[in-house]
Amino acid sequence: MKKIFTFLTTFLCSTVIFAGTVVVANFDDVTPAYDAWGAIVDVIEVPAEDPSGNAWKIDVPANNSAGDGFWLACTFSKNQYNYLKFKMKSATNNFQFMLKLQSGSTATLSDKWYTYTGAGAWQEFSINLTDIEATDKIVIFPAAWKTFPAFTLYFDDLNLETLSSVSSISISGSNISTDRGTAQLTKTVLPVDAEQDVTWSVDDPTIATINAYGLLSARKNGTITITATSKESGSSINGTTQIVVSNQPIPIQSIYVDFGKNDVTNGHSTSSPDANGNYWNNALGTATIATPVALVNSANTVSGASLSITADFAGSNGILNGGLLIPTASYLADFAISSATEDYFYTSNPASLKISGLSTSKRYRFNIYSCRDATDIRISTYALAGLTSTSGTLQLSGANLGGTGINTNNSGIYASEMIQPNESGEITLTVSKSSGAYANISILKIEEFTLGGTVGFEPLSTSDIHVYPTHFNDQITIKGVKQSVQLVNSAGQLIYSQEVVSDAIINTSSFNKGFYLLVVDNNKKIKLIK
Fold it and tell me: Is the domain 253-450 a CATH 2.60.40 member?
């Protein structure tokens, strides 16, 4: 029988529901006892750790597994109490612990991971019991993978509480006016001793998406209604607000790619059109020997682009290994297609793919989603290289990443900066791990834009204006100027402006590589490349 670090509290919780907060038990009044699972080991009272009473000290051995812990006994039923609360303190930071609520000795009704981040200070934990049917054991496993070193934690103030009923919810937040900008919404739930958790949703995720923590992410221009609905059992109380999203560039076309398996057991290809009317491309081969995928756009028109693997992925996985099985439209918008979110390509070493056949006179944004249901933190890095380059990261997993008890990415999407293809019309995407064992990619959406952003332009050549060189390095010379010279980068930002008569020389030695628009005399436009 496995040795457990155990102590027992024995008390019977009243069946009466009280208004307001009701403290049912506190460790200050508890005496350790033996249990059939094993003897008490290094669990002692430490008065100095809690001036108002006695805290408990638990010495956790090195390489403790998720099967060793301490447990507490209490009997209560669903709807009798809303929250289990306690606090922990340790000099060891970022250790994880599993909480189980059990009926009898084996039937697990709840199994969730939490992370201590208090850095030596007391950290309070509040566990929502809404979905718990019944329990007579509260089991806490202070473990964080088998290679975690020995550490000491202190435990105190176990409370079971009832709460007042929610009467109102209000939401505040600011408009979004930057490209792919975000806004953190704030909710106020009254009364303050009521259930404070809410479920966030939006009425039109094509305009903006939201995550479990109220972070709104812009996608296109428009006005969106956000709703926060109480998680109180049986309640329908909610609050709403409207946010205006503006200044989002408009793509010419979009291309969707689903990476993963098509074996039914562990993944499916995405059928077209999907529930949103979009057409998809399916990438199944993970190695360089795979046949390139000719890409159609979301309207099922040939895009002229293709996808090929240029450095092998380790393989593909999905339904059986932590894919997102039930995506939420408010969180993922057009990515909320289960056959696309449920599987993925993965790699432990850098893997890459190349998109060919892109227009050198256009710019592109790469939107990437992936996930892994696991408590360890896994972060993927996505590096894009063409004539210009950019990179970013996406967290795939981690304790409570997608909301309390949800350890997978159910809302995050990496949206790249605008990037131009190289002179051969190619952009390479390299996928590598930043943290954790593997990097993943589930969905890729490529958006194509005109060089100028929301409003396109045609470069204008003219016989009375002479510009050289058009493929420049350290300077540009312009002859025949009558009024002014302006230079705009590929993001639509004005980076140079000067009133000039006759000739102008612009020092461009500090400019990044990429496409630029030269505007002469406010109406003559010439495309340049560095």
Answer: no
